[in-house]
Structures are given as C-alpha cells and as structure tokens.
Amino acid sequence: MMQSLKQQWFGNIRGDLLAGIVVALALIPEAIAFSIIAGVDPMVGLYASFCIAVTIAFVGGRPGMISAATGAMALVIAPLVKDYGLNYLLAATILTGIFQIIFGMLKIAKLMRFIPNAVMIGFVNSLAILIFLAQVPQIIGMSMTTYLFVALTLVLLYTLPRFIQVVPAPLIAIVVLTSIAIYSDVDLRTIGDLGVITKTLPTFAMPNIPLTFDTLRIILPYSLALAIVGLIESLLTAQILDDMTATESDKNKEARGQGIANVINGFFGGMAGCAMIGQSVINVKSGGRGRLSTLVAGLFLMFLILVLGDLVVKIPMPVLVGIMIMVCIGTFDWSSFKYLVKAPPSDAIVMLITVIIVVYTHDLSKGVIAGVILSAMFFVIKVSTLKVMKDGDIYKVEGPLFFASTHHFVHYFKHTNLTEAKVTIDLSHSRIWDDSAVGALHKVKELLQAKGLTVNIIGLDASSEKLIERLESITSSH
Questions:
Q1: What is the dihedral of CA 358, 359, 363, 366, to 10 degrees?
Q2: One domain, residues 266 and 413
Q3: Number of domains, the chain
C-alpha cells in the first residue's frame, strides 16, 4: 500500500511537475468559458477548478486524471443559476457531491461493464469534436495574425518533441509565443478578454439559502443530474486514461473522490465539476502520470491567479486554441473510420448515434445513455431469434423464451395445424427467462387444450421450473 502511494506521488516528479504547470495554464480559459456558460462570475469556475483538482489529487482513484469545472456540468447548472442564483448553485454542488459519495459506496463502477465498446468509441470521438467546436469561436472571423499564431503553435507542438523531451512542448509554446505577442504588440484576443480575474483565494462559507423542503425540491433534480453526468464523464475518462497508460484505476474510489471534491468545492464558492478529458489528455501527453501532476495543476492555477495574474491575462487565446486542437487530434479515434466499415452494422450505428446525440445536445450523458439503450435494443433483437422445429411428434424449441420472442412461440402453435392427440414441447434447448415467457407457455397450453389436445412440456431446466412455479399462479389468474 505504502509502496503504491509512493509511486503515485513521487514516481514521476519532474514529469508530473511540468505537466501540471501546462495543465494549469490551459485550465484558466476553460474555467472562465465554462463560468460564462453557467452564468456565473469567472472566479466561480476558477475556484472550482482549484478546489476540485487539489482535493481529487488526494482522494481520487485515477492518478494523473484532471478534474475541474467542465462544460457538461455548466450546461446542467445554467437554468438553476438563471432562476435561483449562485447560492442555490453552491447548495446543489454540495448535494451533488453527497449523491456521488453514495453512488461510489454502492459501487457504481460495476455499471461500466454495461457500456459497449461502440459507445466508448463514440464517447471519445464526440468529446474530440466538442473540444474542437469550443475552439472555433476563438478563431472564426479573427485576424490573419490569429491564424498565424494557431499555426505556429501547432508547428511547435508537433516538432519540438523530436528535439526536446525535458520540457513539455505546450509549455514551451505558451512561453515563447506569449513573449512574442507581448513584445511585438500584435492585436490578439487574450485570456483577459474572457473575463475579469480577481487576485483572491476562495474562502469557506455556507450557501446563503433557507434550509427548507422547498429548497431541497428545487436543487434535488439538478444535483441528481449533475451527479450522474459527472460520474459518467469521470468514469469514462478514467477508462480512457487506463487504456492510454496501460494501468488500472479504482473507479469506485474515483466516484467517492469526485463526491468529496464537490462537497468541499461547494463550501468554497465553486461550481460543480468532474473529470476533464481534454486536460487529462494534455496531462498524460505532457508526461503527467501521478497524483502530483493533478495537485500541481490545482496549486499552480491559484499561483497564476494570485501572483502572475497580470501576466496570465496576456496569454494569447490562439496559443491555447492550438494546444486544444492538438488534444482533439490526439483524442479522436481515427481508426473508427475503418471501424464503421468493418464492424457489424449495429455497432457502427450505435457509435454514430452516440456521436450525433452528444454533439447535438452538448451533453455527454445523453449520448452515452442513448448508445447503451440502443445497444441493448440491438442485443435483444439479436438474441430474440427463436425456432420451433417438428421432430416426429415432438416440437423442439431452440433459443431463449422471453418477452421479445414469445410472439413467435405463440404464433407458431396458434397457426400450425397439429394432427397429434398428444403434443410434446421440448424446451431442453431453450430457457424460460421472464413472466412473459411463463405467460406464453400457459397461453399455448390453453390454446392446444381448447382443441382437445394433451400437452406435455419436457426439458425444462431447474431455473425455468422454479420461475414457472413462482409465476404460474399469477399468470393463470390473468
């Protein structure tokens, strides 16, 4: 245990320190932009990013993952802020954290295994597209200098690693191009154009709201939605980082950690947040692997605001846009074009639907949930194939008998001309799965007995017999 903690904190000190600095620089414009989406002061997003990153470094289950204020959470928050104000948002953030702690204790991560690979690919690709689309307003309709700086950033990001591995390329690009922009006095949008940064630390305060059932009624739906959205994004991001780094993470611990971080965050004036795939990918690609990188990201973010605030506001937006475009290119699963051709049509459709819904709604949870439901529907269609074959005077049933296959089972015996006085139905190659199957079996027996035929059911396994025994009395009464 101690050896594992030592490795997570001090196994990659230089890489984690430098990567954390890069992430902190990239967090500032994101946090401000998400604050604007949520309809709150820019400092609410910055305080959230600081509080969540620092807390999750200690209590999270995925070392090296970056959690902060996010766009997905901001979209859920916006109506609450508009109708009820900041204090209700802070209360909702605290309740969100409580829900996430409970979900973590209930081992919510078990549900991860029900997310198909097609949905995972769709999730990754839609995130890459969303990150790219978020950069478009920063460059469309801007000056030629803006495009030049974006291009220069991309050139540096892809060429520097060939010659310099000691310092992450994004950090060099930010320092070099910001210096050029300041000394050449070119006209570029900067971080300062997004919002006012106040040089103050977050302070502990209780949300100023009435502690009544009415308040709970207002914040409960938002908190539940935030908890679910946050955990879906966090656990899927954790899985992506697992794959990128060939390591395992404790996702139930991560769920609890997200909850603890949001509870603390709510008491320090921050909006609800969760894992950020863009920043997490920047962290990993910049050499970050351990908890130290997440802690440094949070602490350096606050250092930048308090100490270097006047300099930070001068960082050109095109440089940060270039870094995020690199993240999009690296995040997008380019082999998915081949996947669309090679994979079964149902999987290809699930992937495309997941991407379309996420990009259209800007809500990751809706796309993932829709993808899982669609996958389940295709699975049901696939497994609901049931055959009834006559072998002498025995009717053999092959395939699972459940709600989706009962129609074919009943239809066969209803419309087949049976000449035997005694009908034997062999279910040794089938299985009774639910009450619909028990009801169908009962209906077929009634149909055949009404024609004066004797019905004999054979081949039932123990679980099918037990289910029939439990449900037949209920089914026969309908």
A1: -20
A2: no
A3: 3
Beta carbons of 226 and 364 less than 8 angstroms apart: no
For residue 114, give the DSSP letter.
G
Mean pLDDT of 27-35: 82
Kindly state whether residues 63 and 105 are assigned to the same domain.
Answer: yes
Residue 344 is classified by DSSP as: -
Query: What 3-state DSSP class applies to 390?
Result: strand
Picking from 105, 25, 107, 111, the residue whose alpha carbon sits closest to that of residue 68 is 25
Could you tell me the residue range of the domain that residue 105 belongs to? 2-332
d(Cα 130, Cα 126) in Å, to the nearest integer?
Answer: 6
Dihedral over Cα of 332, 335, 337, 342: its sign: negative
The residue among 298, 332, 366 that closes a domain is 332
Task: Give the CA-trace dihedral at 443, 449, 451, 454, to 10 degrees.
Answer: 130
The strand pairing partners of 151, in sequence order, are: none
Clarify whether residues 177 and 215 are in a common domain: yes
**Residue where one domain finishes, among candidates 299, 332, 365:** 332
Q: Are residues 278 and 411 in the same domain?
A: no
For the cut 80, the answer to whether the pLDDT of residue 419 exceeds it is no
Total count of residues recorded for the chain:
478
**Looking at residues 154-170, what average pLDDT do you find?**
85
* 158 and 196 assigned to the same domain: yes
